[in-house]
Amino acid sequence: MKYRTRIYYSESQKALMWELWRKGESLQHIAQLFDRNHSSIQGILAETGGIQPAPRRRSRLALTLAEREEVSRSLAAGDSIRSVASRLGRAPSTIGREIRRNGGSQGYRANQADALAWDRARRPKECKLVRNRELARVVASKLQLQWSPEQIAGWLKHSYAVNGDYQVSHEIIYRSLYIQARGALKKELLEHLRRTRAMRRSRHHTMKTDDHGRICDAVSISERPATAEDRAIPGHWEGDLLFGNANSQIATLVERQTRYVMLVKIASKDTETVVNALIKHAGKLPQELYRSLTWDRGKEMAGHKRFTVATDIAVYFCDPQHPWQRGSNENTNGLLRQYFPKGTDLSVYSQARLNAVARRLNERPRKTLNFDTPAERFHQTVASTG
User: Fold this and answer.
1) What are the E-state strand segments in the chain?
2) Which of 51, 76, 184, 302 is most buried, by CB atoms within 10 Å?
3) Is 331 a member of any domain?
């Protein structure tokens, strides 16, 4: 069997890999450009958890190669350290330290000293979560509650506004999770992220599409009141079915203004069952807090007229293949996959358990709410309408 020789990628080739990875290209596609197997590319990207390392740069304070060559020539000529430092405009202590750490006056070589200095510069800067272990503990505890790094960072900034020691960016949290060499957060915490992949992927990687067919007498989203579109008043909801395995599903409802989530147990996806469940659920809210419902083109809402007659709640439908028109619900369904991974049998969950999951999600701070929680905003709305 003929084996391919090991390939060593140049820095420019690695830069191209990272550029394509940031744009959302797959490992397979990137590997094809280099005529290699995807595992060859994965080995390079996975080393830093799919996060491109910052380009290495020399410190502006470090001696240059030209300065080191001047040091080497001066030592050979028998010049003093002070005279060398004077010519280079450096402190004598800088030149003395340079010589001592790189072979002394007899063994100093400019190229060797420059290479050693470049290697020493590889020592990584200590991560803030390593320096502040209490902050790392707080971050870990919130990750275990399925808070996203962005939610944690926003909450810390809000809660510790006058204490910078307890503020950390979401990017540092991601890097601490995916780059284990930092030693700040345990790798096991990755399982609490919305997406539990081994490497961080670009946000451009995939876009969900949605095409469920046609609904008779559907009222287009373009006819939805302007107050629903601009989230000016509460009571306008977005809904969809979240599917599991074994033909199981639950209905997910999100209030547009507050992002408050409600989950409804659905025994079957046929329109009669779905509409009956939604009618029963609608009775739990006052009319002021349930003015309209926006759904996609799924056939489960073919009985939307019966729902409107029974509840006096208008139903609007997204345009075909435009799931982003109910973006709050799409985003929520993605968050719910932390609790209900694809392939989960959703039929085993009781309504009480679904309520508990919804409560957990509603108690997570949201960036779009200035890091208030949906529960706080919704309860304020309930109080104002009561």
Assistant:
1) 236-243, 249-255, 261-266, 292-295, 314-317
2) 184
3) yes
| Distance from C-alpha of 182 to C-alpha of 283, rounded to nearest angstrom | 52
The band of 213, judged by pLDDT with boundaries at 50, 70 and 90, is very low
What span, in angstroms and rounded, lies between the C-alpha atoms of 263 and 239? 10
112, exposed or middle or buried, with CB in 10 Å at 0-12, 13-18, 19+?
middle
- Give, as one character, the DSSP assignment of residue 131: H
Q: How far is CA 205 from the centre of its chain?
A: 12
Per-residue pLDDT of 26-37, as tens digits, reads 887 787 777 777
- The answer to whether residues 275 and 242 belong to one domain is yes
Q: The tokens of 200 are what?
A: 């961080």
In this structure, the answer to whether residues 75 and 106 fall within a common structural domain is yes
Residues 40 and 72 in one domain: no
Domain for residue 368, yes or no? yes
Q: Mean pLDDT over residues 283-290, rounded? A: 89
Q: How far is CA 201 from the centre of its chain?
A: 9
